[in-house]
């Protein structure tokens, strides 16, 4: 694990059906290479727990962002900024014949890279645990 600078490690001790779902998530993440989707690195068993190594997103979730702005409406430009990135990610996912069944504000992560001297939130979709993978031909 030393080879990754920033990763998120998900360790799961689980029943066989949960393990199958987690392994399914790994297979799906391998197919997805898009800037608005959390990057998958590898998975392995360690101490009888499935460990998934994936990109670390240091920001917050969309639900945290919304709650922080609870007493005011979000600016239309900000909503459009988020929506475009979410739709680009979903377009990529759907082109791979994958259906994300648990897309919610908790599974949309925001990061703050400074682009052209502006602080813009960068959207990353995560948690592909409950997905429909592509069907075999």
From TrEMBL:
Example of a GO cellular component annotation carried by this entry: cilium
One Pfam short name: Pkinase
GO MF term (any one): ATP binding
Limits of the Protein kinase domain: 1-137
Family annotation (InterPro entries): Kinase-like_dom_sf (IPR011009), Prot_kinase_dom (IPR000719), STK_NEK (IPR051997)
Domain of life of the native organism: Eukaryota
Protein name per the record: NIMA-related kinase 8
Organism: Hucho hucho
Lineage of the species this protein comes from: Eukaryota, Metazoa, Chordata, Craniata, Vertebrata
